[in-house]
Amino acid sequence: xxxxxxxxxxxxxxxxxxxxxxxxxxxxxxxxxxxxxxxxxxxxxxxxxxxxxxxxxxxxxxxxxxxxxxxxxxxxxxxxxxxxxxxxxxxxxxxxxxxxxxxxxxxxxxxxxxxxxxxxxxxxxxxxxxxxxxxxxxxxxxxxxxxxxxxxxxxxxxxxxxxxxxxxxxxxxxxxxxxxxxxxxxxxxxxxxxxxxxxxxxxxxxxxxxxxxxxxxxxxxxxxxxxxxxxxxxxxxxxxxxxxxxxxxxxxxxxxxxxxxxxxxxxxxxxxxxxxxxxxxxxxxxxxxxxxxxxxxxxxxxxxxxxxxxxxxxxxxxxxxxxxxxxxxxxxxxxxxxxxxxxxxxxxxxxxxxxxxxxxxxxxxxxxxxxxxxxxxxxxxxxxxxxxxxxxxxxxxxxxxxxxxxxxxxxxxxxxxxxxxxxxxxxxxxxxxxxxxxxxxxxxxxxxxxxxxxxxxxxxxxxxxxxxxxxxxxxxxxxxxxxxxxxxxxxxx
Length: 493
Fold this sequence. Notes:
Number of strands: 0
Shape: globular
């Protein structure tokens, strides 16, 4: 999805052709997708807020059993993300794949009413996460493709803030339902299903879509993607890229030297997308058959060639490494309940605290990442999470413990959840954007799946304290490695 079409290069060298409508830093599609995510997250977080307590206290799951189910809950989504991302790029219809994902998740919500065993619950949750995996990369691709590179952090921050508003309202709704309904858990699952259906309806009616509209590849037209990436005549500073390699890292990729990055003109009909020339991914030429816009479908080989990009490999690898030591939210809340003595009736409000902080900080931290460097903000978020682990391990059970841990937990998400996909704007070309997002998202989610299994097993064998201490030490080591791997090529920021 594209916001503008540049019909001619600037005549006066001022670069005015690169400007969007005055004051519009966030595209309308971002706001609509944010609304869909808000509604869907109300539904999902209603279930997520009650699920740990429901499984452990009502169904009697052990920490190992809960960790296994929680791992499945996150791992299935990771496995499906690659499929959803590649299919969206292949059929050039991000809305279709996102809609299928939202629809499948909505259909699974009422099935929770029938699930009473670990096998049945695992199957239903796996299907629900399959829907999430299908929709995540196409949705983020629509956000990324509708936003200029220098505003990627802000756009994802706005979307994540709206998404988090739903995450804040979901636990609150679950709390009120549990206090008023006779069959509290069943009522939560039923209301969640209705809200999920509303989200699918909003997506179908208000998200502009169908097939992706391609900008014309006129030989006399400057390639807007090169302009948007800060490649061409415009200096790097105009693209909003910082020193950190998490930013428009493809701009600094040495292979760009031979890709015509210095003075790229669309008059060169064979211009390839910057950063992928050496990876074998071609920029489709006009008139090629295979899709309504004259471009051939994206092949699996082209998608796999993304892995030859050093910066993409580094980003995916670091996301996976940090994910291996990121304890799942459910375990964090269970640990906080035990350490701070939070009553069961208040347990569903713990995610609300995280969501409030996330909501308040998502946009400011996204904009800050655009200015000072996404690497800096991304790693700072993990430092906040490490501090939360330290408080859970060693801080006394005072009234301040709960708000402090939740504030750090929310800050972690605000500094990482939107910044990570924003970092891909300069790494992956438009026609493979969903696939690139899926690669990084899958690596992170699979690592967190392994972490859930390992943490649940460690808790069962050694107890919650040693399990969390091991995760904290691992996170410290992994963050240090990520800081070295993702360091800027020409600086230390």
